[in-house]
Amino acid sequence: MITSAGILLYRRAPALEVFIAHMGGPFWARKDAGAWSIPKGEYDAATEDAWDAATREFREELGVAPPDAHVLDLGAFTVTSGKRLAVFAQDGTDWGPGPFEFGEFELEWPPRSGKLQSFPEVDRAEWATTDAARLRLVKGQVPILDVLQRLV
């Protein structure tokens, strides 16, 4: 099974908000609903700890470090793709990331053109209320919000 790990930042301002990222690349460019994700990525559970992978992926996708804050383990979720996603939450109330430097990936684009192009893994990231995030997150990540709301 493929494993991923990610960090979901939250804050109360005054409603509960979460920090989510819009997926980059041509497939997601004109979509909003169901086109956002928590910062996350794959890792090899045999050689890397889930928390270490989550912090590494946060830095790779956003180009900034997560806050130095208490970590809540929200658990592991089986998402729509069949991957197992370990999710950690941190209070991002006082987090001031500065400018983002989004990581990139290569993709043959246009399809079957033989041309590789670079695209950002994430093209923007922002705070959203949990109600807004329910509409924007990819379907398989929505249950993560329920767990976060129960714990904070």
Automatic annotation (TrEMBL):
Record-linked InterPro entries: NUDIX_hydrolase-like_dom_sf, NUDIX_hydrolase_dom, Nudix_hydrolase_domain
Top-level taxon in the UniProt lineage: Bacteria
PROSITE patterns per record: NUDIX
One Pfam family recorded for the sequence: NUDIX
Chain ranges of the Nudix hydrolase domain: 1-150
Name the record gives this protein: NUDIX domain-containing protein
